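@channel sequence for tomorrow's demo:
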Amino acid sequence: MLTNLGEQVAHLHDTTLACAGAPPVAPPSPATTDDDRPALLWHWIHTNHFFNSSLWAEEDLARRTTVSSDEIAQNKRAIDKFNQARNDATERVDEILLTELGLVDAASAQTDAPVSKVPANARLNSETAGSIIDRMSIMALKIHAMRAQTLRTDVDADHRSSSQVKLEKLLQQRADLGDCLDALISDTQAGRAYFKVYRQFKMYNDPRFNPALVAEQNKARS
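structure tokens (generated this afternoon):
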């Protein structure tokens, strides 16, 4: 399941984008239980990629200059929603990986206080495996978009050539991320390293914490 994970993740991202239209290809519903961690892991990796793809499309739309402010506001709300879902999926990936790697107690993995099973003297890695996978998803979207630039027929050769240079750099950057992911997994399996789930606590999306939304609610009650 975790052997050559970086390569497997890149393949899933590229395969999904190759057949994606509009909207992006949604992940299949997992007909599994929490005990089937491999299937759940790939479901949540796919889910993360789906919401990154949806976010990418909305970010493009939000840059339009010939539509109404109401339409841009709708794009902004969609961006907030997709970004929250993308982060939620990243956290779920980390929870499953930490359980599979034996770094947390399975029953507590989804809580805010997971029970650690980290071996003594293991170093803490500041970036989680899920966050690397999330970055690889974004890199796949950049690669997909830049590759399209190299194939355009409505631009000059210089544009295609410079886009090819950028594409090669993006491919190398993603390969580096995949190598870092595999190294982190290997180090955790050997007891040399560990990572944690870092809860994002997106306060601006929560009407209990966003001061502007709290003010609106208080005004409505008065």
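heads up for whoever presents: The CA atoms of residues 35 and 217 lie 41 Å apart.
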